[in-house]
Amino acid sequence: MKSGFVNIFGKPNAGKSTLLNTLLGEKLAIVSSKVQTTRHRIKAFLTKPGEYQIIFSDTPGIIEPKYKLHERMMQNVKSALEDADIALLLVDATKDIDEPVELFRNLRLKVPSILVLNKTDKLKAEKIEKLKANFNNASFRKIVDVSALTHKNLDELLLTIIELLPDGEAFYSEDELTDMPTKFFVSEMIREKVYELFSEEIPYQTAVIINEFKEKESLIKIQADIIVQRESQKAILLGEGGKMIKQLGTLARTEIEKFLQQKIFLQLFIKVKPKWRDNDLQLKEYGY
Ligand code: GDP
Ligand code: MG
Prior knowledge:
The chain is of the alpha/beta class. It has helices spanning about 15-25, 70-80, 100-105, 125-135, 155-165, 180-195, 230-240, 245-260, 280-285; strands spanning about 1-10, 40-50, 50-60, 85-90, 115-120, 140-145, 205-215, 220-230, 265-270. The radius of gyration is 20 Å and the shape is globular.
């Protein structure tokens, strides 16, 4: 039996959440084309009884610590990397990858590292070979080209990971998928819909808290607050005659019902809390 911790590390939008979701076959981490949607670390377990258990962490992307929220994200990245057995640098191979590779090497990790070239469904074979040759000597044990979206080469990636995993018993029971509570995923799904429906600064200045999660006879009642920073943002979220919040609620409900495989009653309130992102107490309250 082999078991250990693998951290997926990479810039926002590289495809970390997509890779995790594909490997785990569940919608564990929210996927969005906008950057910085994953503010928390999510541990997800991939277990083959008697053979291996891989504990993946989806770490928030590397970003400038502009706000307190960002400083916390950087701390999360560091702490995530320090307790790993394997570090996995995931890059969007359709973009310039020198910068993330350089950032990663500057962390001077002692754990074995794998460079994963993602989104290679969009690249020609020659381009992929060229990239692999370029980064061959750059302190990676192995370079694997994949597509998290089309599942290309994910078996090879798994084999590479298993090879580097230490011997050991499983840390979590085989029927567990994640260390996060259901409530967390529900709030992430609501947040995902905010990302889908609104642009510019709104998604980045929004937090979601679940106040009520009650299992009734035929459905689950969920009441959530959407926290924004300004009255003007609240007005945008509400929309004309409540049009937008209604649409948000419908989209989120559909998604949550798919995830929970159960009917839900979803109630959303919008609350204004100025500068919540710079307020330590409030960050704690919202789970950051
Ligand atoms: P994260 O910020 O690193 O977690 O990135 P996400 O998983 O949220 O993905 C960002 C965007 O890239 C989404 O629109 C994904 O659908 C897209 N994406 C992820 N993996 C692939 C891939 O292998 N190929 C292509 N073409 N797009 C991908
Ligand atoms: Mg993500």
